[in-house]
Amino acid sequence: MQIVDTHCHLYEPEFDADREEALARAVDAGVGRMLGPAIDSQSHGRLFDLCRRHPRRCIPMMGLHPTSVNDNPRWREELELVEQLLRTPPDGIARFCAVGEIGLDFYWSADFRDEQTEAFRRQCRLAVDLDLPIAVHTRNAWPEMTAVIEAFRGTGLRGVFHAFSEDAATYRRLKACGDFLFGIGGVVTFKNSRAAETVREMDLDDILLETDCPYLTPAPHRGQRNEPAYTQFVCAKIAELQGTTPATVAAATTANAERMFGLCPSQTEHHE
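and the corresponding structure tokens:
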């Protein structure tokens, strides 16, 4: 059984003490590939280093996270760097699989709503120009994010709504916007999770697996640091909710990831 963790921050300092061991645990658990979203230029070096060491296992995205726009007078320069890197990847990075992690986040402050929205729209346009999917982060901004996505309907914009835990009506509305998938992570394993009720109604062809590690750790490890190996618990919970087997969920979500992000199916056969 092969699984793709489509959203993980294995390059973050939380893994400095055991990053290689965490990667080995992931592979042992069947998580053969991990997609790493960018945050901003402060973390690019760590992301690139990881992907250079494990080019078949760790595949990078490139984008500017919405909270990195907040109170940042240089955010437009950051956007220019994102575009430059997407058009000309640095040495040792073959390609970026998506424009991400981008979106809107008004949880900490809504004071930078206009700046975040401009950054989001610009990166959506860039994704269309480069024929790349987007990985969308949304927190306390679902109506505003949805309005931006709906404005791009018919342009070819496509991608994934990361850490999706909204209701079935929101799922159906976003699905109608085009070729979009929904990243399901540890929240689906929590008691009384709205995400669990939504997953019951979702088409398996619309689902991607993710951890968002080191955050959003699934049961039975909730409260501990998350890691890519724990994608297996998300897979098992989705299988339970959909009335099918983990192997079926793994196969479907891996095929979804390969299609959306342009991953080569044969990559799972390589060993590093």
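(Above: one complete record from the training split.) Strands lie at 3-5, 31-36, 58-60, 99-105, 134-139, 159-161, 180-184, 207-209.
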